[in-house]
Amino acid sequence: MRLEGHTAFVSGAGGPMGRAVTERFAREGASVVITDISGSRLSETIAIVTPLLASGAKVIAVRGDITQAAEAEAVIAAARAAHIDTDIIINIVGGIKAKTMFEPMLTISEERWDATFALNTKGIFHLAKLLVPAMVERRYGKIVNISSISFAGETGNADYGAAKAAVASLTRTMAMEFAPHVNVNCIAPGTIRTSVMQRMSAEDLAYYAAKPLLKRLGEPADIANACLFLASDESSYITGEILAVSGGIWPAL
């Protein structure tokens, strides 16, 4: 098992991508510290993951909004109370909270702009401040941030694209500052089959399914598999990279 003896913190573990990552890591022997803003979704993940844990592995689950410093601190405090040292961080939390997914830049409100940047970047910031010092001290750590192919620019998603570009940039800075003992990488998903699909019209779904070279939407398991590679020692000589998991779409600024 590739993650035996390791502990992974997975944010947004109640959503499809976070749950897939948590499940995949549990199957590979990891203990997991998981959080989500939804207590009910988090409970569902616990029920799925607990039977998959390897002997001696644990699951610590705390509902919380990691974009808020106090709530992020409470989640980490629960892990420390259980004498768990986290050496892997998977930053899933992100997206758009607005009711309308697509909005021209000139009509985006300042409130939406600020909320999108907070949702996509503040959790990464808080968890780094709380967990990375111990990783550096132990001389080992793996961090995977979730950006999006939209960081290259997306009509109707100026706030989201810019926030995900910030995540990509932040990944490079973190890789530089936390080197040489902490690997920091980034995944840029294409359109993945998650709950966001429920907010798309049939026309939009058809467009996004036809866009990749592979002519289909991605699955949460595709992201989980990429996270596993970047969290394992198989990627020990990779840091500061952006891995597109997008069916062949190549994002670039």
Q: Between the first and last Cα atoms, what is the distance in angstroms?
A: 37 Å
CATH domain fold name: Rossmann fold
Element string (H = helix, E = strand): EHEHEHEHEHEHHE
CATH top level class name = Alpha Beta
Biggest beta sheet attributes: 7 strands, parallel
Q: What structural category arises from helix and sheet content?
A: alpha/beta
**Strand order within the widest sheet?**
3-2-1-4-5-6-7
Shape: globular
- CATH 2nd-level architecture: 3-Layer(aba) Sandwich
In the predicted model, the low-confidence regions spanning at least 5 consecutive residues are none
Radius of gyration, taken over Cα atoms and rounded to an integer in Å = 17 Å
Question: What is the helical fraction, as a range of percent?
Answer: 40-55%
Q: Mean of the pLDDT scores?
A: 95
- The fraction of residues assigned to DSSP E strands is 15-25%
Number of strands: 7
The CATH H-level superfamily is NAD(P)-binding Rossmann-like Domain
What is the number of helices?
A: 7
Whole-number count of domains: 1
Task: Offer a quick outline of the entry.
The chain has 253 residues and is α/β, with parallel strands linked by helices. Helices cover 42% and strands 15% of the residues.
What do you see in this structure?
With 253 residues, the protein is α/β, with parallel strands linked by helices. It has one domain (7-245): NAD(P)-binding Rossmann-like Domain (Rossmann fold, 3-Layer(aba) Sandwich), CATH 3.40.50. It contains seven helices and seven strands. The chain has helices at residues 16-27, 39-49, 69-81, 110-138, 158-178, 202-210, 220-231, and strands spanning 7-11, 31-36, 59-63, 88-91, 141-146, 182-189, 242-245. Strands 3-2-1-4-5-6-7 form a seven-stranded parallel sheet, sandwiched between helices. It is globular. The termini are far apart. The model has no long low-confidence stretch (mean pLDDT 95).
